[in-house]
Recover the amino acids of this structure.
């Protein structure tokens, strides 16, 4: 009995920890949205989640070299949208352009990288909720 209760407590702690991390992340993301100038292209903060993805050119987003610049490239935040009815299904839109990556202040570059990672963190929760809703709607195969 104690083992089951301990597992339930651990699960509850993990879920509340994720929800707290998500709430903090979303607040930071909203702040960065304005600080790096995304609000100039996307007026409403919530609208950034309508994009299929947001990516970065000019700096690495890989865990092993996060934020490392790619010399000779331009630092730019790109949004990817998808329209299944259009002839060209996928479309890239520049949300912010910062020029040659070597000339961008390191502090600003780090904020931009942080924005992308925080966006992806929140987007993963939105995706999780979407698929959970779909599973709930279709039901269980064991019924």
């Amino acid at each position: 009995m104690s083992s089951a209760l301990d597992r339930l407590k651990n699960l509850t702690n993990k879920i509340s920890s994720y929800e707290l991390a998500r709430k903090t992340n979303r607040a930071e993301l909203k702040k960065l949205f304005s600080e790096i100038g995304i609000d100039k292209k996307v007026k409403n903060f919530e609208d950034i989640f309508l994009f299929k993805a947001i990516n970065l050119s000019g700096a690495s987003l890989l865990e092993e070299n996060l934020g490392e610049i790619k010399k000779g490239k331009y630092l730019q935040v790109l949004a990817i949208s998808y329209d299944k009815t259009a002839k060209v299904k996928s479309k890239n839109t520049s949300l912010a352009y910062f020029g040659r990556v070597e000339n961008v202040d390191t502090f600003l570059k780090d904020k931009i990288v942080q924005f992308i990672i925080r966006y992806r963190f929140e987007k993963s929760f939105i995706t999780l909720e979407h698929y959970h809703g779909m599973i709930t709607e279709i039901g269980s195969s064991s019924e």
The longest helix spans residues 2-35.
